Amino acid sequence: MAEGHVSNVKKYVVVYVVILAIAALQFVIAYSNISGSQMFARMLFLAVVEATLGLLFFMHLADNRGLLWFVVIFNVFVLLTLQYGWTDSFRMLGGVQWAK
Amino acid sequence: MSQAEMTMQGHTTAGHSAAMEKPAFSIPAKKMAMWLFIIADTATFAGCLVAYGFLRNGTPDWPHPFESITNVAVMTFILVTSSLTMLFGIDAARAGDKSKALRWTLITAALGALFALLHVREWLELIGQGMTLFKNPWGTGLFGASFFSITGLHLLHVTGGVIALIAVGLRYKGGRYNADDLEITGLYWHFVDLVWMFVVPLVYLLNLKR
What we know:
With 100 residues, chain A is mainly alpha-helical. Chain A is built from four helices and no strands. The mean pLDDT of chain B is 91.
């Protein structure tokens, strides 16, 4: 065994089980009797939690705060800039002939 | 010492200090390159998923063709499990156990290949039901375009990842690559897994037949 190596297998298994449980919860929500927007919000929230766990523990960003902030700030910026078109999306529902 | 020699010495010292500059975020350059690729690729997938959301929200006759979640549930289980086996491989590589690291890496690649096969089978079923890029029997043709684009891009990443895992794993065992290289490939594989966590609820679960 390489000198100084500390195995993280137990931690990985715990995170894996948690991610699987959250994924299962998404499937349960898919069959729940709630509105589409509520379903979307809940599923997206759970997906963000899953991705955060993956980033922090599988991709080891928890060990590198500087890189974590770099990744988070850049991606949040990109995601925010992508939101500019939603008003047009809603306008399509009522204002465009082919969308009716 | 002549003026020219002093100038040369100055340049050499400056060159050394540049070469010894601390790497960004204290990680090796190869790992940093992979992170930059992942960040750029995140923007690509985010663009695709937001465009899909835009179309889905703005199109009244959006189809809900998926009758069963069994296939996508199995695919999700396989991909998340492959992330765990990848971590086992990296852990073994860090411990210096090359055979074990290669074994786990190849198991990861096999799970990725299985995921790809299930995906292709699902595609063929949908195509068999009359779904193409431009039309389907259930509603707007935009569904096929967005479904095949998003899942196809992801499938392309999975296929590339399987090839990379096999190539890097074998070269690690052969001594050409080290544990860092395996870990960098693992970063890519985890990213592919993370993207799937968003594709499943948005593309599959929200389009279940009710």
